[in-house]
Design a protein that fits this description.
Blueprint lengths: L1 E8 L5 E9 L2 H38 L6 H31 L8 E3 L1 H18 L3 E5 L8 E3 L1 H17 L6 E8 L3 E8 L33 H11 L3 E7 L3 E9 L2
Parallel strand pairs: 4-6
Antiparallel strand pairs: 1-2, 3-5, 6-7, 7-9, 8-9
Helix pairs in contact: 1-2, 2-5, 3-4, 4-5
The structure holds adenosine-5'-diphosphate (ADP).
Length: about 260
């Protein structure tokens, strides 16, 4: 059952009472589960033939190296890139349906978040450097408490957020990752001074396949599955995610995760 309520206000905005609606959502839940299972099954079925096509294209390109005209080589390479894109979209879809159905196999262990973030920042450093961007990690001097979580889930959450910050920020911009603690939570902020997001899209960006399309983002490739995955993983860890943004000023994602 799902309950929704709203206050009933009088002329002087005084509270007169409340209207509560209780809806039986059993059928919606069943449909949702069937949809998730269907997506998982289709994705699974598509992944292996696509991987074969990708491997075979790579072999053909390798074997015929030097014998192909420039345009033939270009066409085959494009086909290989597109198949790779499809394979990663399908991987994301599978991840998302596993997260939504609660069937991800999490292996929680105590994690030093600062160290994990340091590794991601090092790994993505080249990508930022290629765009002449500054990418930095800021942490307090005193050691932070550990959290208990699957390191792979944390890598996926922060890898996605930092990659987005780099992708949706102009050349020469800056991306800062800050970590600190509120006592009960570890707080990570991923802030950029990039393109920003219009307010009307802020609650949509966590929907699957949603992408903001404007002159600046048009040529950036993506699937619109990154943030739904991030949100699902954060919630599975009993954490929270929020976003603040201003067009042409930048965006900050804040993630709160309960300490161990
Ligand atoms: P993708 O990056 O594959 O498009 P995501 O789900 O990760 O998918 O993000 C959804 C959309 O949210 C992006 O297409 C982009 O429009 C917007 N977005 C995400 N992160 C940022 C950011 N740091 N700055 C500006 N826009 C962002």
């Amino acid at each position: 059952l799902m309950a929704r309520g709203r206050p009933v206000l009088g002329e002087r905005k005084q509270c007169l009472g409340a209207v509560v609606t209780i809806v039986d959502i059993t059928n919606m839940k069943v449909l949702d589960r069937l949809k998730s299972e269907f997506v998982a099954k289709v994705s699974h079925e598509l992944r292996s033939p696509l991987s074969t096509i990708h491997e075979q294209l790579a072999l053909v390109i390798n074997d015929l190296m030097g014998q192909l005209s420039e345009s033939e080589e270009h066409l085959l390479s494009r086909a290989k890139e597109k198949t790779q894109g499809l394979i990663s979209t399908i991987g994301d879809l599978l991840d998302l349906s596993r997260i939504e159905s609660g069937s991800t196999q999490q292996e929680p262990k105590p994690v030093q978040l600062e160290e994990l973030l340091g590794n991601i920042v090092d790994f993505l450093g080249t990508r930022a450097k290629n765009k002449n961007q500054k990418l930095a990690l800021e942490a307090p001097d005193e050691p932070l408490p550990t959290i208990k979580a699957d390191p792979l889930a944390l890598e996926s959450i922060f890898g996605n957020l930092i990659t987005n910050a780099i992708n949706y920020t102009q050349e020469g911009g800056a991306v800062t990752v800050q970590v600190d603690t509120t006592g009960i939570h570890l707080r990570v902020r991923v802030a950029d001074n990039g393109f920003g997001i219009e307010e009307r899209y802020l609650d949509k960006i966590f929907d699957r396949f949603f992408r903001v399309k404007n002159d600046k983002t048009r040529f950036i490739t993506g699937t619109g599955l990154g943030l739904p995955i991030v949100k699902g993983l954060v919630e599975a860890l009993k954490g929270r995610i929020s976003v603040e943004s201003e067009p042409d000023k930048g965006t900050t994602f804040t993630v709160l995760l309960p300490v161990d």
